[in-house]
User: Fold this.
Amino acid sequence: MKRIKIEAHPDATRLSKLKVNVWPEWEKENSIMPWTYEENETSYIIEGRAIITPEGGDPVEISKGNLVTFPAGMSCVWNIIEPVRKRYRIG
Assistant:
């Protein structure tokens, strides 16, 4: 089972080491959308809140201040409750 890893409120040093400030940004309004991760993705949630349900797994909630890792090959459904803005790195 592929799992979503959530790191709540990593400190500024960790974010700086990851170079989060130069990752591209992505925004999405309240919606429900299916998604499959072709490669590993790490995201830092700048704003918003969503519930992500992996295929065959339990839902997880992500929100502002979370550093989230999505594994390659995972299919899921995003339920965006509050508009999300995130920075992300693929691979």
